[in-house]
Amino acid sequence: MNDKDARDIAHLRRLANETDPVPEAVYAAAKAAYTTRDLDGELAALVADSAAAEATLAFDAVRTGPRQPVEPRLLSFRGGGVQVELEISEQADQLCATGQISGALAEGSVLERADGGVQDLDVDELGRFLVIGVPPGPARVRCRTVAGVRVLTSWFWL
Q1: CATH for 3-157, among 2.40.240.20, 3.40.50.2000, 3.30.70.640, 2.60.40.10?
Q2: pTM
């Protein structure tokens, strides 16, 4: 590539960033997708989503940002011998995640957010948990099986 081509590409890149910048939520989701790679962990894949009839992805096709959760939104994940059931809802203007984890230890289960935040899940003897006041954005559940294998759900949008 010659100098003129490099200058033209830089100019086009600058124009694109000024006229149609990539939304911060897209950067957050890309970072979340990148950090999904975990060679030591099993992935619990999304097997059911009540919002799937409306869309199968967390983002519109044309960089318009994240979709808002369908109220209430029900998600099911399976993999690595673990099943995670989640209900995302809004109560008193706060996002809530209610769920149940089967096949995993209660201690050490957390809700991870793409911004690096981690919230411990207070899982009871039946595997149930409730998290109130969760900030919106990409998140996933991390837990351990009885055998000690780390299991991560795929990322989902709160």
Answers
A1: 2.60.40.10
A2: 0.66
